[in-house]
Design a protein that fits this description.
The structure holds 2 protein chains of 2 kinds. Helices cover 53% and strands 10% of the residues of chain A. Chain A is an alpha/beta fold. In chain A, strand 5 and strand 6 form a beta hairpin. In chain A, helix 2 crosses helix 12, helix 3 crosses helix 12 and helix 9 packs parallel to helix 10. Chain A is globular and about 90 Å long. Chain B is of the alpha/beta class. Chain B contains 5 helices and 12 strands. In chain B, the strands form 3 sheets. Chain B has a 6-stranded parallel sheet, with helices on both faces. In chain B, a hairpin with a 7-residue loop joins strand 10 and strand 11. Classes of the chains: A alpha/beta, B alpha/beta. The interface between A and B is large, with 103 and 78 residues.
Chain lengths: 472, 217
């Protein structure tokens, strides 16, 4: 992960700051509610949504089961189509390969289409260390990059910024990256988009090297697919002489026909559109059309760890639509930064601890960044049972031990004994009811739980006593 | 390159070995079932065409319907209305389409730079097919369409769809008709962004105006 995420505090700490930021909460609430309502309409248009969801889930599960075979088939197909395939076990290796490829072209700047995988490995920072400037060209990524900020949403990385903040960032920072913002720039979205168009166009038209990710790779044909809206993707994928795509190994699908499922489910789940404005598909290199040199870097970086976990591996079905973020009550209030990863929200809470392990404070806290309400599972177009994986990961974190978990284990053990001894339970309940006025408002040792919650009031009489009085 | 052939090979083998051991104990996964629909639209060419028209317009493409006889005049009018002095012409575009247009024809040669194409006002192309349910046109860089860059750089794109042979109802109907070995560009409405407070703004980097001509007969 990118260096900016190192040393992140645990989720509850990071979230506490975010929930007190009124602007942030307003920006997030507006955005998530707008998009979730639109998405519901887009999905309702398809009578066979449940069947598409099931097919998507099965295609992904089938692929993951035979991933070795499909990756080898993909490698052969891409190579036969004129591309070169590289394999990267971790972030450092992927960055080394990409930097080497860029240097071999003699260029010192690259244009990038938004890619989660390259954010995950911190590619921009790695290239900068090698003296190579990487320009993000997705409007939201540009806002994040110019603002020296971190993305906070999978699909709309600058969702936490409103138009006024974006205007200020453009005015202050565009000039130091290239063409400055026009004088008197207002906060009107059309004007802001125009400023981005002018600023980036000079970079697109002179770029010799493009870097992308991919939404899908087809093993059968060697085809890569990028979904986008603005045309920055098309610019990066077609104008440069060299194209380098860094893609997680889980993004492969077996057949060309499989795309028909995701072409229907991804746009409706992500931007709530019948189809996103632009989708580019390319297979190796084409005669005199687009980059004449194409490199595919296949990235593991923890994915095989997730694959080895029989409950957790379903997270690798994720097609990065972000529907789970937009319905999540926790994401809506805490915002994307609190998750300390390029993958925020419910999917991030199960993906990051699997990719990175649960040793760090932030990763150990992520499985708890949920109320387990299940809304994320309902909207997921590939039916990832996120609550199931969260509970499974909580178990792993608890097994790992730590102060809180030792207390919790002792309490559960004691409760287990009491529940096995009905007479002790009845006596305890009776005693608790009679002494209820003396009980503290906060439980000693459970401050994290009771700080924001009222303890339930004990009834004046236990249920057993009431039953005895009324029914026997 | 710092990663030599040796280290590449070993990472490849290492990743594949990790994959194999990760799924070794997993149950076999069956061939996926496909119980979804192949179309959501009645099998009626007129209804499919109306749906295409409606969905293209919904995503703010400007839609025209015309016949072969009237196409040259329509294209002339659209270019003139826009004030286009120059128009990019793919090598295989039927010459009669632009027979009435006044705009100077520009050809995309191998030596033309992106900057030169940036100065062109409009581009006119055909397509591989159009999908009614999603309001999408698909280009496959065939002779009437040219390289991908010519429909990207100019700010105004006119795309001609032959009705009915280039119109399909749904995405599943489109897939078998497309050749994945060709570069494919799926276009649904003009370039747009929703990155600023989720307000949809047309036109960031691709053509800000997309006109689709449904050519009947």
């Amino acid at each position: 992960m990118s260096g900016t995420y190192l040393g992140m505090p645990s989720f509850p700490e990071a979230a506490k700051e975010a929930v007190h930021n009124v602007t942030l909460r307003a920006n997030l609430r507006h955005a998530t509610h707008t998009i979730r309502d639109k998405r519901a309409l887009a999905v309702a248009e398809l009578a066979d949504w449940a069947e598409l969801r099931e097919a998507g889930k099965q295609i992904k599960d089938h692929t993951l089961r035979y991933l070795d075979r499909y990756l080898e088939q993909l490698e052969t197909a891409v190579t036969e189509a004129g591309g070169t395939v590289h394999w990267a076990a971790d972030a450092a290796e992927a960055n080394r390969i990409v930097a080497g490829l860029v240097k071999a072209t003699g260029e010192r700047e690259v244009v990038k289409v938004k890619s989660m995988a390259t954010q995950e490995i911190g590619l921009n920072e790695a290239l900068e260390a090698e003296g190579i400037s990487a320009y993000e060209t997705d409007l939201a990524e540009l806002i994040v990059q110019l603002g020296d900020d971190r993305p906070s949403h999978i699909l709309v990385p600058a969702i936490h910024r409103n138009r006024g903040e974006i205007r200020d960032i453009f005015q202050d920072r565009m000039g130091s990256w290239g063409r400055p913002a026009p004088d008197g720039l207002s906060d009107n979205p059309t004007e802001l988009a125009e400023a981005a168009r002018l600023h980036l166009r000079e970079k697109f038209l002179r770029a010799k090297v493009g870097i992308s990710g991919a939404n899908f790779m087809v093993a059968e044909t060697g085809t890569l697919v990028v979904f986008e809206s603005e045309g920055n993707g098309r610019m990066c994928l077609t104008l440069p002489e060299t194209l380098i795509s860094v893609v997680g190994i889980e993004k492969v699908v077996p057949s060309w026909r499989d795309l028909e499922v995701f072409l229907q489910t991804l746009p409706r789940s992500s931007t709530a559109e019948r189809m996103n404005p632009y989708t580019s598909m390319w297979t190796g290199t084409a005669d005199a059309d687009g980059p004449q040199s194409f490199h595919l870097v296949l990235l593991d970086n923890g994915r095989t760890n997730a694959l080895a976990d029989e409950v957790g591996r379903q997270a690798l079905r994720c097609i990065r639509c972000s529907a789970c973020l937009n319905v999540c009550p926790v994401y809506e209030r805490a915002g994307g930064h609190a998750y300390g990863s390029v993958y925020p929200g419910p999917i991030g809470a199960i993906l990051s601890p699997q990719l990175r392990g649960i040793q760090s404070e932030i990763d150990a806290s992520l499985p708890y960044a949920s109320s387990l309400c299940g809304a994320c599972y309902e909207v997921c177009p590939v039916a990832i049972d996120i609550p199931e994986v969260l509970v499974h990961l909580r178990e792993k974190v608890a097994d790992q031990g730590g102060k809180g978990h030792r207390l919790e284990k002792a309490a559960i053990k004691a409760a287990g004994w009491v529940l096995d001894h009905p007479a002790a339970l009845a006596a305890g309940e009776r005693a608790a009811s009679r002494t209820r006025r003396l009980h503290p408002r906060k439980l000693p040792g459970a401050g994290a739980w009771t700080a924001d919650r009222e303890l339930p009031e004990l009834p004046a009489e236990s249920f057993r006593d009431w039953w005895k009085r009324n029914r026997t | 390159m710092s990663a030599g052939p040796h280290s590449r090979t070993s990472s490849r083998d290492r990743i594949l070995a990790r994959v194999r051991s990760a799924v070794a104990a997993a149950p076999e996964a069956p061939v996926p079932t496909r119980d979804y629909l192949t179309t959501h639209t009645p099998d009626d060419p007129a209804a499919v065409l109306d749906l295409l028209h409606e969905n293209l317009a919904d995503y703010r493409a400007v839609v025209h319907r015309t016949t072969a006889d009237e196409l040259p005049l329509l294209l002339m009018r659209l270019l003139a209305y826009r004030g286009s002095a120059t128009v990019l012409v793919p090598p295989g575009l039927p010459p009669e389409w632009l027979s009435a247009a006044d705009a100077t024809r520009i050809h995309d040669r191998s030596v033309s730079t992106a900057q030169e194409l940036d100065a062109v006002d409009s581009v006119v192309t055909g397509c591989a097919l159009a999908i009614a349910e999603t309001g999408t046109i698909v280009l496959d860089a065939g002779p009437g369409q040219g390289r991908r860059r010519i429909t990207l750089i100019p700010d105004h794109h006119i795309c001609v769809v032959r009705v009915p042979d280039q119109v399909v109802a749904s995405v599943p109907q489109a897939m078998p008709r497309l050749d994945p070995t060709r570069p494919l560009t799926w276009i649904s409405g003009p370039s747009a962004t929703s990155d600023i407070e989720l307000d949809r703004v047309e036109g960031v980097h691709g053509p800000r105006t997309l006109e689709v001509v449904l050519l009947q007969g």
